[in-house]
Amino acid sequence: MNFSNQFIGRELFPNKTDVNSDNNLSINGFDLTKLAEKYQTPLYVYDEDTIISTIKDFQNSFKSELETSIISYSTKAFSNPYLLKVLNENDMNIDVVTGGELAIAKFVEFPSERINFHGNNKSIDELKEALDYGVKHITIDSFNEIQNLKKITHELNMIQDVLIRVSPSVDPKTHLLTTTGILDSKFGFSIETGDAERAIYELTKIKNLNLVGLHFHLGSPIFEVEPYTEAIEYVYSFASDMKSKYNFQMKKFSPGGGFAIGYTTEKKPLLIREYAKAMCDSIKKSAKKYKFPIPIVILEPGRALIGRSGVSIYKIGSIKSIPNVRNYISIDGGMGDNIRHALYGSEYSVFSVSKINSKEKMIKATIAGKFCESGDILAKDVYIPNPEINDLLVLPSSGAYNLAMSSNYNMQVRPAVIMITKGETKSPLIDKMKATKLLGTMLGGYNITPLIACLDDNILAESAAKALSNTLLMFDSFYDVKDKADDGNKYAKIILQSWADGEWFTARPKLQEKITVTVFKVSGETNTDDLSPAPDAWSRPDIPLHAQAMLKMERDGIKPDVSGEIGPIQQIKILKEKGYPLAYVGDVVGTGSSRKSATNSVLWHMGNDIPFIPNKRYGGFCLGGKIAPIFFNTMEDAGALPIECDVSKMNMGDTIDIYPYEGAIKNSDTDEKLCNFSLKTDIILDEVQAGGRIPLIIGRGLTGRAREALGLKSNELFRKPIPVNDTGKGYTLAQKIVGRACDVDGIRPETYCEPKMTTVGSQDTTGPMTRDELKDLACLGFSSDLVLQSFCHTAAYPKPIDITTHHTLPDFIQTRGGVALRPGDGIIHSWLNRMLLPDTVGTGGDSHTRFPIGISFPAGSGLVAFAAATGVMPLDMPESILVRFKGEMQPGITLRDLVNAIPYAAIQTGDLTVEKEGKKNIFSGRILEIEGLPNLKCEQAFELSDASAERSAGGCTIRLGKEPIIEYLQSNITLLRWMIDEGYGDIRTIERRAREMEAWLKKPVLLEPDSDAEYKKIFEIDLKDIKEPLLACPNDPDDIKTLSEVSGTEIDEVFIGSCMTNIGHFRAAGKMLQKSQETMPTTLWISPPTKMDQHQLTEEGYYDIFNKVGARTEMPGCSLCMGNQARVKAKSTVVSTSTRNFPNRLGDGANVFLASAEIAAVSSILGRIPTMDEYMKFATDLDPLADDVYRYLNFDEIESFQKSALKAKSKIEEIPISVVN
């Protein structure tokens, strides 16, 4: 698409500054928002193209008037090694004024014969350094300097060319502090006082100093030519007098610099050729008048050469309005990097990077810096369109005297500075052809714009076309290629045809008919804690390092290199020596968290290298009697071939042949058929060929768009989902919710679909990987309506790498329109649930992203990134299992017991087995739909949906009545606006979600399952039959037993916390603990889910109870549940309210029972799991649905939250936010 680059103030910016398709400012094709995101703000961006064109303008303008003209850049304006290389390559001279500026010139080996050394107080060391390097001229500024140079040159026995700086007493009509050519100035020898003549007289007597000319500099910036012409005439008159007195010959003449540039749209400078014409005419006229030959004329631009090529970018951090006085917008830079306003009162135009042509309301404001000075101002009374926190502001014409005068005041770090070098950079290592080919190795993003530009370069076009033909992450840049093709660019046409033919796909090898692999067998259950241990979560983004910890705990058939530290690396190495790829084989594989890191670890040892992407692998083979759905999907995403099959006849080290098209596996040595299998879908074959499910989805879409653009019919290149027969029956609740997200009435099981992802969650141990996946997808803005990032897994005991994540990840998320929580806020699910919309679909990078309203399908980091970036997620619709509760809950029974009643019921019917070999799990990969408890609060409903993760269910729905949902949303609207008042971002996203909730409340209609909906199985659980609490035994969340079966077990530690808890559980535990009069025989851990819960429990006195019994209270968050923070003692026996109890998760060798907070509290008091009678003594007074204990936080009824919400609402009334119903 073509976008206009015309806007008011365009002339202040570098060449080729445009408003791009995202409505962001770009320079030479580089989006300033993306540059700010990559390099952070404050940021200075220089454009080499503008620098070079300005150099040419100066050289051509002056040389066309006087052939003897030389342009000498004044490096005090801004000096940098790369800039000096550019100047050298363009035949420029330079002026330096200090030893530091000279040092940079020496560093880049700038030719000494093109250097002039200026300055009013050069030290002896600086002069010696200049002479030693062989600078062409030294411009003398004082009598002391004459004597110093006389002494040094005599000692060195050398002759040095010099000029003297004279002051012509001409007012340039600029700022007093930048006026240098008047009588009252520290610079130069005054002609008026006779100092200039005295200096010339002294120099005529010094044989080692050769006076070759005169220099003056009037000041800067000068917007008129008259001061120059007046001074030229005056200095020539003086020179004529010196010629007659001392035979002075003016071989060189420098009228200095000071040429103006535009800083605001109101004050426009002269063109360079206008300065050149007037000054050169004056020189020629004066030379003729005073009978001098035309000298070498040295012009010294600084600001005029570099100023317009640079812009400075800042981020808004706060906005302050003083009624009837002033609006202050504070940015993250200031006088430390741009002191010009504070020093000179300089004026700037200020623009909003993403609102350059905005029609939003303009706010008059003063742009203030972050330094501790009232004078730290960058611009006064400028107009900014609807300024918001995190908006980017840009000051054009920031290239000169900003960074050059910067400081570390307040210990602030100086800003980053980058040069846009598109098309002009030269390297001794690579030429532009190789550079183009290297760009083609990127997956998309920042390489797209320059590659598309190369299509117009006859030399590079073919290479660029080849690169783009294999680039899938084109997004809207597809239309840029299409536009070029429509305009007749033959290479763009080639690209479109290549996409249409699917050459990106056909060029990749198909899966072979027979694949020979070596078996790496892990018997029993492999959970993701085994593959990606929680204590090593800090290293997950570093795949090779993290993979060292895979299977680090000793188990049957597995020999870690260092038990508990390094996995079986040598064992893997020996198996690889057979010469075949390894296949990961297990009875049950990948249960537990939705960890892309688990997949990464397996593939690091058993996958294939990805060209041009280090430290990451794809492909590989995974065989399992059962493969957990999320792990299966994550393997798909990574281009692996996951197969569910009978693995009982496969042993460690066996060589087997996999026949993917035939659906059989044989022993390579005996040709014995070991098993038959069916692929989940034949589309997996395409996924493997494409390098993964996500590349296939994106690539198919690109091919489809290209064929449509070329007027071609769809082709048969890709396998298509087999249509599902419509039974004509009704839909379940889940099928209707997913159907609505796909704009249809319902989705039948096994149907491929791409539902809209309304809400996406990411936590901090998966977040860095999700960030990397988003980068791989070239995602610069989220398409999902709301993306939330939390820091609940690492906040309590952060490692240095976690601290870095806490500082950097929020900006990454918020600059893409997401919402970032803060360390200490608490568990992601407790926050994300409060941001949900009824009957919508979402996903998250944590396996416990299980919405209590609507439905979610948790996924690995790759798929979560895809959902956030594109707003949809691929889904093969699972079958549903209905769990229907009926009857009344019995005394002492809690919702946690109902959670455990579900697997307990399946065990009784034989649909779930605890034994791993030949494992049965009817819930695996299916949707668990729960009804019969319509009056549960949403917080309570989450306890049921949350635990569906332990069933390995693909998703879960809870059928609630309208009343609890209405109550929940009313509370959550207040919470969201409290977040805005507290400074959480992105403000637009948060407010949009609040308004969407308000829109639903106006028409509160819930989807309902049809009466004739079909389910894989229906479990009916009568609450009257649950007469005693149910616990999950060590170390398997499926191993459910009644309280009487495990009572008396001695307990060492108790943990009450995790996302399975809410504020009611802590009140219940507190009331039980209050009854205890004895010293606790156990270690009790308390960790509420959010800081709001913690505050309320403190207000109600429960923390006083916890302290009295000696409980260890933890920061709100995941705490022990994750296993990467604090841990229980090794080999201890524990009762926990956490989500799962896999081996070694809470502590090395720990035996962990999963139970209700009530059972946990009693166990902590007794030091053992209680009998039913003991438990009931404490639980008699507890009603699990009672309002006094199980009362939840309704923020709309809390005064402090109400006030904050009102304040926020007034702030955001003018924000244009669209709500899609």
Helical proportion, percent range: 25-40%
Contiguous low-pLDDT stretches (5 residues minimum) are none
What's the rounded overall pLDDT mean?
92
End-to-end distance: 29 Å
Number of strands: 47
C-alpha geometry: elongated
Give the radius of gyration.
37 Å
Sheet having the most strands: 8 strands, mixed
Task: Tell me what you see in this structure.
34% of the residues lie in helices and 19% in strands. It is α/β, with parallel strands linked by helices and 1221 residues long. Strands 4, 14, 15, 16, 17, 18, 19 and 20 form an eight-stranded mixed sheet that branches. The chain has an eight-stranded parallel beta barrel with strand order 5-6-7-8-9-11-12-13, surrounded by five helices. The longest helix is centred in the N-terminal third of the chain and has 21 residues, at 226-246. It is elongated. The two termini are 29 Å apart.
